[in-house]
């Protein structure tokens, strides 16, 4: 009986280390805003290529949105902020590609977040 209990204890401890952890939490809106904040003036009144600080944030956000939940959460946040700020559509649509990154959505108030992920 003691050997069975020892075996179960060892299996339980090993299970803690080898069972993959899945996180249901998605990226927070504050992280999305922090990453894209350097892009606001560019998106509202800029032209040409985005500033380096903006592209750094875009790339950071792209790296942070790896799961479907992250992409949907980032989309909802971007959409919400874009509704309160008037951005130049052409700059918003080309932001990620102009920074050499890939984002799940454009910085647009009309993006359909149900299709993201």
Automatic annotation (TrEMBL):
Q: Which CDD domains match?
A: nsLTP1
- Key word Protein biosynthesis present in the record? no
Which residue ranges does the record assign to the Bifunctional inhibitor/plant lipid transfer protein/seed storage helical domain?
29-113
What InterPro entries would the database entry show? Bifun_inhib/LTP/seed_sf (IPR036312), Bifunc_inhib/LTP/seed_store (IPR016140), Plant_nsLTP (IPR000528)
Which positions carry the signal peptide feature in this UniProt record?
1-25
Which Pfam families is this protein grouped with? Tryp_alpha_amyl
Keyword Signal carried by entry: yes
Task: Give the record's keywords alphabetically.
Answer: Lipid-binding, Signal, Transport
Q: Which family does it belong to?
A: Belongs to the plant LTP family.
Record's function text: Plant non-specific lipid-transfer proteins transfer phospholipids as well as galactolipids across membranes. May play a role in wax or cutin deposition in the cell walls of expanding epidermal cells and certain secretory tissues.
What is the recorded name of this protein? Non-specific lipid-transfer protein
Q: Organism, per UniProt?
A: Camelina sativa
Taxonomic lineage from the root: Eukaryota, Viridiplantae, Streptophyta, Embryophyta, Tracheophyta
The primary gene name is LOC104700423
């Amino acid at each position: 009986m003691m050997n069975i209990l020892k075996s179960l204890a060892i299996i339980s401890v090993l299970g803690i280390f080898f069972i993959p952890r899945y996180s249901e939490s998605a990226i927070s809106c504050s992280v999305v805003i922090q990453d894209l904040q350097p892009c606001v003036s560019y998106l509202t009144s800029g032209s040409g290529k985005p500033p380096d600080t903006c592209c750094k944030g875009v790339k950071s956000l792209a790296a942070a949105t790896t799961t479907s939940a992250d992409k949907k959460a980032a989309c909802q946040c971007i959409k919400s902020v874009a509704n309160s700020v008037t951005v130049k559509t052409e700059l918003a649509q080309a932001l990620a590609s102009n920074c050499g990154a890939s984002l799940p959505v454009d910085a647009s108030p009309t993006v359909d977040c149900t299709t993201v992920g």
